[in-house]
Design goal:
It comes from Streptacidiphilus cavernicola. This is Sugar ABC transporter ATP-binding protein. GO terms for molecular function: ATP binding. Keywords: ATP-binding, Nucleotide-binding, Repeat, Transport. It holds the Pfam family ABC_tran. With 543 residues, this protein is α/β, with parallel strands linked by helices. The protein folds into two domains: 215 residues, P-loop containing nucleotide triphosphate hydrolases (Rossmann fold, 3-Layer(aba) Sandwich); 191 residues, 3-Layer(aba) Sandwich (Rossmann fold). The chain has 17 helices and 21 strands. The strands form four sheets. Strands 16-17-18-13-19-20-21 form a seven-stranded mixed beta sheet, with helices on both faces. The chain is globular and about 70 Å long. It binds adenosine-5'-triphosphate (ATP). Adenosine-5'-triphosphate binds next to strand 2, helix 1 and helix 15.
Length: 543
């Protein structure tokens, strides 16, 4: 596991008087994709030894700016400079990497090479021998307080360690600017804390850091400055100390309507009713976290959250119920029908809608349009008795769903592969809800989704339960995803550890339970779970 230099004192929050040019400066950057103006005259600078947070709603232009700043995309107008000198020509990857390093959401490390080989990969500037490569890698790791074996194969590393390799690669080239694009998205809580220490270490070492995140609390914790993009325009740039969360959100959403409360329930959840989903004694071996004798039930109209560290089996449970991963023991029953192990087709036929964790691999078809993806599962309902579909039928069917999730696209025909990450996630959710599922399994559904859209998305899931009687199993390590749940089950090391039955749920108590410690205080609502494989008819296991 990676280790760090000791946490350093927080850097100053006031902007220091700067005599030298900024480490990175962009001026008047314009970028178009067809009719979309992704960036409109953006001016931004990052000083050495400062961390600038970049925030904005989905589709605001953050990733586009990252591509421009990494030398991967040529702007249609404007300039980029490093330390006052013009940036190299776009496409000269080696020279850009000497200036700026980007840690993307999806690792760019080559899995079949060692750490040292990755650190020196593509370093065309000079010949580096194996021995020297390993020695230099060890030196860099030691200098920055990272502890990863230079000879380890990258395929064996955790997400956290892969990020360190990418940062070390930048430092080895002497880059003094690091771009971190949603770096905490796949990290456990402790790893996030260590990442923050590392970012502080970089900043204290004089590196300029650009930090992109949808988690505003992270920006307040580690950034000194913040910039807000809205519809491709820079609408705010200020020291973090001068702003509060409300001001930041207001700058991000502009005049956009605030999410309303979820639909009123016609009747309280009837936990004595026949469950729509029953899981008994589920055992599964999985690289994402095993399950060992998990039992739970979801009543009609109920939203049940499943949380824990992701390695505790949270995602595995969702995947197994959705038929996306096999199980070795136990049963899964959806509306009275047994769902066989690893059979996504049978789970779907039984009425399970699925919002997968990895939307790029499983969530949508990239070259097909927004409307086609959204309505893919209800094509039969949109065709007439001759199997023909009137033009515009798909777009009309998709429109209410995509509007409810505030999807940003250039129109219903835009290929989903061209949308921003958060908007792709919204298409995945819209597609799942389109075919009126009896059970919705959603794994980390708000990952990569902006703060305002997150409320819309969670409300859409709660509404489907409240208005159609579907059961929702919401599997997430993101505790703020659980606000609209009726009940929360906590997994620890593949077993059900605790159950919270009375919303609103206490965040601290949830954290305590995910660590495997018995919840205290409101114990009636947060009781440790007995080891049992038989759910009671009430939906929860007997206690
Ligand atoms: N290759 C492309 N072709 C067409 N449009 C694109 C392309 N890449 C981005 N866009 C559009 O540019 C706009 C900005 O997208 P960008 O990915 O930069 O947003 P973002 O702020 O990173 O969003 P998110 O938070 O969802 O990741 C969006 O409207 C998007 O659909």
């Amino acid at each position: 596991m990676a280790s760090n230099s000791p946490p350093s004192a927080s850097p100053p929050s006031a902007r220091p008087p700067s005599v030298s040019p900024p480490s990175v400066q962009v001026s008047g950057i314009e970028k178009r994709f067809g009719s979309t103006r992704a960036l409109r005259g953006v001016d931004l600078s990052i000083e050495a030894g400062r961390c600038l947070g970049l925030v904005g709603r989905n589709g605001a232009g953050k990733s586009t700016l990252v591509s421009v700043l990494s030398g991967l995309a040529a702007p249609d107008g404007g300039t980029v400079s490093f330390d006052g000198r013009p940036a190299p020509p776009v496409g000269d990857v080696t020279r850009w990497r000497e200036l700026i390093a980007t840690v993307f959401q999806h690792s760019m490390v080559v899995p079949d090479l060692t750490v040292a080989e990755n650190v020196f990969l593509g370093d065309g500037s000079r010949f580096v021998g194996w021995r020297e490569m390993r020695a230099r890698t060890r030196e860099i790791m030691a200098e920055w307080g990272y502890a990863i074996d230079a000879e380890a194969y990258c395929r064996d590393l955790s997400v956290e360690e892969l990020q360190i390799v990418e940062i070390a690669r930048a430092l080895a080239r002497g880059a003094r600017c690091v771009l971190l694009d949603e770096p905490t998205a796949a990290l456990e809580r402790d790893a996030v804390r260590r990442l923050f220490e590392r970012v502080r270490g970089l900043v204290d070492g004089g590196v300029a850091v650009l930090y992109i995140s949808h988690h505003l609390e992270e920006v307040f914790e580690i950034c000194q400055d913040v910039a807000v993009l809205r519809d491709g325009e820079l609408v705010l740039s200020a020291p973090v100390a001068e702003l509060d969360r409300e001001a930041l959100v207001a700058a991000m959403i502009g005049a956009a309507p605030v999410a309303e409360q979820p639909a009123e329930r016609a009747a309280p959840v009837d936990r004595a009713a026949e469950p729509v989903l029953t899981v008994r004694g589920l055992t599964a071996a999985s690289a994402r976290g095993r399950l060992s004798g998990v039992s739970l039930a979801v009543a009609p109209g109920e939203v049940v959250g499943v949380t824990g560290l992701l390695s505790a089996g949270v995602a595995t449970l969702g995947r197994v119920v959705a038929g996306a991963e096999p199980y070795q023991g136990g049963t899964v029953t959806v509306r009275g029908r047994a769902v066989r192990s690893g059979r996504r087709d049978l789970a779907q036929r039984a009425g399970v809608g699925y919002v997968p964790e990895d939307r790029l691999a499983e969530g949508f078809v990239a070259h097909l349009g927004v409307a086609e993806n959204t309505t893919m599962t209800i094509t039969d309902r949109l065709t007439d008795r001759f199997g023909l579909m009137r033009p515009g039928r798909r777009a009309a069917a998709a429109e209410p769903l995509t509007t409810a999730l505030s999807l940003v696209s250039s129109g219903p025909g835009q290929p989903v592969g061209e949308l921003s990450g958060g908007n792709q996630q919204k298409v995945t959710v819209a597609r799942t809800l389109a075919h009126d599922p009896g059970v919705v399994v959603a794994i980390t559904p708000t990952r990569g989704v902006d703060v305002a859209s997150k409320a819309l998305l969670l409300r859409a899931l709660a509404d489907v339960a409240r208005t159609t009687g579907a059961g929702v199993l919401l599997c997430s390590d993101e505790l703020s995803d659980l606000v609209l749940c009726d009940r929360v089950v906590v997994l620890v090391r593949g077993e059900v550890f605790a159950e919270f039955t009375e919303p609103p749920f206490d965040r601290d108590q949830l954290i305590v339970a995910t660590e495997g410690l018995a919840p205290t205080g409101r114990s009636a609502a947060a009781a440790p779970y007995p080891k049992s494989t038989e759910p009671s008819p009430s939906g929860a296991d007997p206690r």
